Amino acid sequence: MTGILQLLLLVSATVASEPSCPACSKYDYEEKVLERMIRMEFAFEKVLKENKDVSKTVEQDLTRIKVENERLHATVDALKNQQEQAERRLVSLMEEVERNQSSTLVKIVSDSNTTLEKTIAAFNDIKDQIAIPLVYFHARSPQTSSLSTGEVIMYTTVETNQGSGYNSTTGKFTAQVRGLYIFFMHTCTHVSNHAFLQIVKEGSILIGTSLYDNSYYTCSSSQAFVQLDAGETVWVQCFNGGSSRRLYDDSKYWTSFGGALIHN
Ligand SMILES: *[C@@H]1O[C@H](CO)[C@@H](O)[C@H](O)[C@H]1NC(C)=O
Ligand SMILES: *[C@@H]1O[C@H](CO)[C@@H](O)[C@H](O)[C@H]1NC(C)=O
Ligand SMILES: *[C@@H]1O[C@H](CO)[C@@H](O)[C@H](O)[C@H]1NC(C)=O
User: Fold this and answer.
1) Are 88 and 141 in a shared domain?
2) Is 100 near ligand 1, meaning CB less than 6 Å away?
3) Domain count within the chain
4) For position 243, what pLDDT does the model report?
5) How far is the CA of 167 from the centre of ligand 3 (A)?
6) Collapsed DSSP state (helix, strand, coil) of residue 95
7) Are residues 109 and 159 in the same domain?
8) pLDDT tens digits, 35-51
9) How far is the centre of ligand 2, averaged over its atoms, from the C-alpha of 98 (Å)?
């Protein structure tokens, strides 16, 4: 386009400068026209050549631009790809962190629960060790009034028997749990009668009493502390029998046997 414009300008410039010599011959004139035409042709060729050079440069530039453009496109695509990958990585990392957090939380809760349950179990153990079961009994009204040596006194009326340790059929107390116990016997005799009684553990003497009064009923009380294992028995027995041995029991004087677990 630029080349065509240049050509037109050249032609018009050439025509505009037509000779105006009145004295010139026809031959001169033709010669000059020819000369001008040749010059025009040269000029035209020059313009064409320049034009060609310019379009070649433009073509090269265009190719370079195209290549550059493609390179840029490729770079942009690669960057986009990288960004997408980074985003995906970030999202999956965030999901993992979330999962880890919630699993950590679940673990903490379950660990606390385990610890709490262990603590409760330990507490219950200690509580069981510390807590003293309720064990005590009191029985009266011995079955026999005359006594023989070695006889076990059977107190037949059971006032109380918490823990069911006392058996009125045998007259013996059996420890259900190991621990420290206290036992007592309260013994009364008829006037002018004797009583020789002992509290024994598995036959071993814990404490004894000897009673006699020739003018009135008389009573005595004896106590003993003893450590018992579960299953061990304690009872009251006569250690000196005979015809003048006689216990007394009525609503005022309770000849009785009792005991209690006081520590375990
Ligand atoms: C998630 O937990 C696993 C296993 O404990 C660990 O290997 C990983 O690094 C954790 N991920 C993050 C993002 O904390
Ligand atoms: C703790 O554990 C017990 C027994 O496994 C269960 O019944 C209870 O729901 C748990 N508590 C919590 C907070 O997980
Ligand atoms: C008391 O002892 C007798 C005789 O050993 C026995 O038969 C009975 O079952 C015992 N009673 C209780 C309540 O243990």
Assistant:
1) no
2) yes
3) 2
4) 83
5) 6
6) helix
7) no
8) 999 999 999 999 999 99
9) 23
Q: How far does the centroid of ligand 3 lie from the alpha carbon of residue 169, in Å?
A: 6
Pick from 100, 131, 162: which residue ends a domain? 131
Same domain, residue pair 154 and 112: no
Partners of 233 in the β-ladder: 174
**Last residue of a domain, which of 109, 131, 153?**
131
Residues 141 and 180 in one domain: yes
C-alpha of residue 110 to centroid of ligand 2, in Å? 8
101 lines ligand 1 (CB under 6 A): no
Quote the domain boundaries for residue 235. Answer: 136-263
Residue nearest to atom 5 of ligand 3 (CA): 170
- Using CA atoms, how far apart are residues 236 and 256, in angstroms rounded to an integer? 10
Residues 204 and 240 in one domain: yes
| Claim to verify: residue 86 and residue 187 sit in the same structural domain | no
Q: Are both 179 and 94 inside the same structural domain?
A: no
**Dihedral over alpha carbons 104, 107, 113, 119 (to 10 degrees):** -100
- What is the mean pLDDT of the segment spanning 63-68? 96
Q: What pLDDT is recorded for position 246?
A: 83
Question: For 220-235, what is each residue's pLDDT tens digit?
Answer: 999 999 999 999 999 9
Ligand 3: lining residues by beta carbon, under 6 Å: 167, 169-170
**Widest pairwise Cα distance in the chain:** 202
One-letter amino acid for residue 125 of the chain = D
Residues 151 and 121 in one domain: no
The helix, strand and coil proportions of the chain, stated in percent and rounded to the nearest 5, come to 45, 30, 25
Nearest protein Cα to ligand 2, atom 6: 113
Atom of ligand 3 nearest to the CA of 167: 1
- The residue whose CA has the least distance to atom 12 of ligand 1 is 97
